Amino acid sequence: MAKKSIDQIDVQDKTVLMRVDFNVPLDDSLAITDDRRIRMALPSIKSVIERGGKLILMSHLGRPTGGEGDEKFSLAPAATRLGELLGSPVHFATDTVGDDASAKADSLKAGEVLVLENLRYNAGEKKGDAEFAGKLAAMADAYCNDAFGTCHRKDASMVAVPEAMAGKPRVVGHLVAKEIQYLNDAIGNPERPFVAILGGAKVSDKINVINNLLGICDAVLIGGAMAYTFSLAQDGKVGGSLVEKDKVELAKELLAKGGDKLHLPVDTHCGDDFGNIAGCNKKIVSAGEIPDDMEGFDIGPETAKKYADVIRSAKTIVWNGPMGVFEKPPMDEGTKAVAQAIADSDAISIIGGGDSAAAVDQLGFADQVSHVSTGGGASLAMLEGQAFAAVDLLDEA
Ligand SMILES: Nc1ncnc2c1ncn2[C@@H]1O[C@H](COP(=O)(O)OP(=O)(O)O)[C@@H](O)[C@H]1O
Ligand SMILES: O=C(OP(=O)(O)O)[C@H](O)COP(=O)(O)O
């Protein structure tokens, strides 16, 4: 059933506590290198402030192990960027449930925004601590979840806070609603052929997804380093490629289950020095024939062509994980070929995963896909068929 939206509640002079995912990448000088997650939260933010609400935003950034004071995990740069995007400064509290946050929350005026410091500076956030959650909950009249990238987590701000606000409005934001609708439509009622493309480094993170996708897709294309674990499962030679030996048995099961649906590379672009891909010896070999002194860095041109043909005829495409070490040319060629084929297709295309989104941006294809998800782990969790407690507990429309 649809969840009640932020637009459907009265916010005039009310304080809304909104969980956003401002977990944005920062460079060494703490400048934001990709503000997509902040921009994508703007519709919900504007919905509150343009209707006279007082808005408190809370988020995590990274995975700090210490407490407050570790500048590299501060949300201050995100607050500044939000102020720039809104065209008016936002308030920033240097704590989450301490004196600064409570003083600034108390003096918030209609139409103003307060950003709290990183929730994960408080150990209670990851533990789902009820006392910490209670303090956050006490600050507001309504709760909104617009943190899609964190929806698969049960952190305090995602679950314990809305639980503590039972009886008050608890609604979904625009970004979460849009992401969930896109993925649900793709998985639940896909226009066919439905093609999934999975790559990246780790089989272990994606093995359950492959299993679920084999049940619902017409074709699953495997690239990236995870292809070599499958190659091992077929007794192929993988040289020094990245493999997960403890997943070989699982890979065998998937090969048996997948049959013709599961597409594996037929050739591999390999090299002999990961540290110097541009300058090292490179060659293209048949899949499963990687020399002992080399490792696989990308799908080969024959695979790229085969995959592109499958992709061009698709009507729904889900892509998670690059086809190779796309950061280091020429090992970006396989990923580029896949991105180009997606751009050429007239399919609904959904890109999930931090690195896949970065690849699409970096290679200049971001405008040509239907939807670039702001959540890697969250979109994978949806593809696995997981339910989100953080969304289930919100009010029905
Ligand atoms: N053949 C390969 N060998 C080593 N690393 C690879 C290979 N193919 C892809 N990668 C790396 O995988 C990383 C992305 O993996 P992953 O985090 O699983 O993807 P995503 O973030 O899109 O889910 C990239 O940094 C890429 O360089
Ligand atoms: O960046 C995130 O996830 P993602 O890298 O899987 O997209 C989210 O902000 C969740 O962060 P977490 O994985 O530290 O809980």
TrEMBL record:
Pathway assignment: Carbohydrate degradation; glycolysis; pyruvate from D-glyceraldehyde 3-phosphate: step 2/5
Amino acids binding ATP: 206, 296, 327, 353-356
Source superkingdom: Bacteria
Presence of the UniProt keyword Nucleotide-binding in the record: yes
Enzyme class: transferase
Protein keywords: ATP-binding, Cytoplasm, Glycolysis, Kinase, Nucleotide-binding, Transferase
Stored InterPro entries: Phosphoglycerate_kinase (IPR001576), Phosphoglycerate_kinase_CS (IPR015911), Phosphoglycerate_kinase_N (IPR015824), Phosphoglycerate_kinase_sf (IPR036043)
Annotated residues for binding of substrate: 21-23, 37, 60-63, 120, 153
GO molecular function, a single term: kinase activity
Subcellular location(s) per record: Cytoplasm
Catalytic activity: (2R)-3-phosphoglycerate + ATP = (2R)-3-phospho-glyceroyl phosphate + ADP
EC number, UniProt record: 2.7.2.3
A Pfam family assignment: PGK
UniProt-listed PROSITE patterns: PGLYCERATE_KINASE
PANTHER family: PHOSPHOGLYCERATE KINASE, PHOSPHOGLYCERATE KINASE 1, CHLOROPLASTIC-RELATED
Family, similarity comment: Belongs to the phosphoglycerate kinase family.
Quaternary structure and interacting proteins, as annotated: Monomer.
Protein name: Phosphoglycerate kinase
Higher taxonomy: Bacteria, Pseudomonadati, Planctomycetota, Planctomycetia, Pirellulales
